[in-house]
Write a structure and sequence with these properties.
Layout: H1 24-30, H2 49-62, H3 83-89, H4 92-95, H5 112-129, E1 133-135, H6 141-159, E2 165-169, H7 175-182, E3 186-190, E4 192-193, E5 196-197, H8 199-205, E6 210-215, H9 228-237, E7 241-246, E8 265-268, H10 270-273, E9 288-290, E10 302-305, E11 311-314, H11 331-367, E12 372-373, E13 383-386, H12 388-394, H13 398-407, E14 414-415, E15 424-427, H14 435-454, H15 456-461, H16 473-478
Parallel strand pairs: 2-3, 2-6, 6-7, 7-8
Antiparallel strand pairs: 1-9, 4-5, 8-9, 10-11, 12-13, 13-15, 14-15
Helix pairs in contact: 3-11, 5-11, 6-7, 11-14
Cofactor: pyridoxal 5'-phosphate
GO molecular function: glycine binding; glycine dehydrogenase (decarboxylating) activity; pyridoxal phosphate binding
EC number: 1.4.4.2
Amino acid sequence: MKTIYEISRPGRRAASLPCSRVDESFCQMSQLPPELRRAQPAELPEVAEVDLVRHYTLLSRMNFGVDVGTYPLGSCTMKYNPKFTEQAARLPGFAGLHPLLPQLRRGGLLAQGALRVIHELEDLLKQITGMDAFTMQPLAGAHGELTGIMLMAAYHNDKGNQKSLVLVPDSAHGTNPASAAIAGYEVVTVPSKGGVMDPVAFKEMLNDQVAGVMMTNPNTVGLFNPYIAEIAEAAHQADALMYYDGANLNAIMGMAKPADLGFDIVHLNLHKTFATPHGGGGPGAGPVGVVERLRDYLPISRVEMRPDGTLFLNYDHPKSIGYVAPFYGNFGVCLKAFAYILALGGEGLKEVSQDAVLAANYLRVKLGDKWQVAFDKTCMHEVVFSAEDKVADHGVSALDVAKALIDAGFHPPTIYFPLVVKEALMIEPTETESLENLDALVAAMGRIADMAASDPEALHAAPVSTPVGRLDEVNAARHPVLQEPEA
């Protein structure tokens, strides 16, 4: 397929707009200083509207998305996004708001609707997680993690604690140690036993230098840690805070609350659990909730209610960690999550988690005769297989399996993660996939297992049905080509 520059022809235009009648003095004021202007116009592609539309439509058809087919990307909850939430976000009263619009003006309620969405979404997330307060400002899950660790640091600094360590399980998401390190902490890795963080090893590493513990529960191998109450109690006795990575909340909504499990801080990925769009670099949202003793450290501004019922942004929180995002965060993303939660209600959210767990265990059982299960026990919303035996017996790796699934019409699962499982294939079907889709995935995985034994070379060549075949991923990572080569 040609690039947009290759189909460009001088003088072609996708649109023709009349000259606007703007005051000349304003034009002069708005012009850039001469030293900042281009010597020549930018060499942008020149194409007709029909060529432009066809080009990007063809590109979209070459891509795979959750609207196209099953997207079982483990630990990332690539669930289908219902379209009514998009409609809610496009309502003129929300989509047309400017972030600098006054909250109140001459008795009018110009921004009260948006503030009420934020205020009520905070209340709903408090009910779901058991936390006492939330900020909606973080712009993504990793941003929420960093915000949560900054809250942890503020708490300890306020108490005069000199703590320098954060404990993280060896199965943690990679953003956990990264967030702790960015915040200035030294990261100590706790080994797993039976797929979950070993409570004995944890207690041996716990000391008065530990500021907090970062955990995902259920974790990245899809297992719920049965020692969580014991771990939380030990951490709190050492005045360490428990941090909940909410990436896997999709497994326990309506059945367990992070606060009840002993966690003090939680970040949520609205683009995972609450069906707002995911991937492509954004937008995202990673709200952070805290227990009461951490409320004062939350970022400003905070949406609060006056005695007369009107809402306002309160900046008067002296112990706050300050600003973590401009304005209200990604309001449109929060709005979609708000609509999703209201539509499902408490029982609906519980059913989401029950169906997600059921789907993962269905795959665990159905695929268990041909694929090695990393931890053959009841899992939560995701299940991890290993292709280690396929490598040993047939020279077929997890990467080969992933590429073959593309030819079968499925997006590959997560591979080579979590790191505690060799040749990992991490599958999360989510609650939005039907029984027929799950059975189709089982059949495809079965055919690939058979092919590994009968024709491994065919798997080494996959994918063969895509516009671009197997890439040299190592060379691409080390020597990326970031621009069109000159003719």
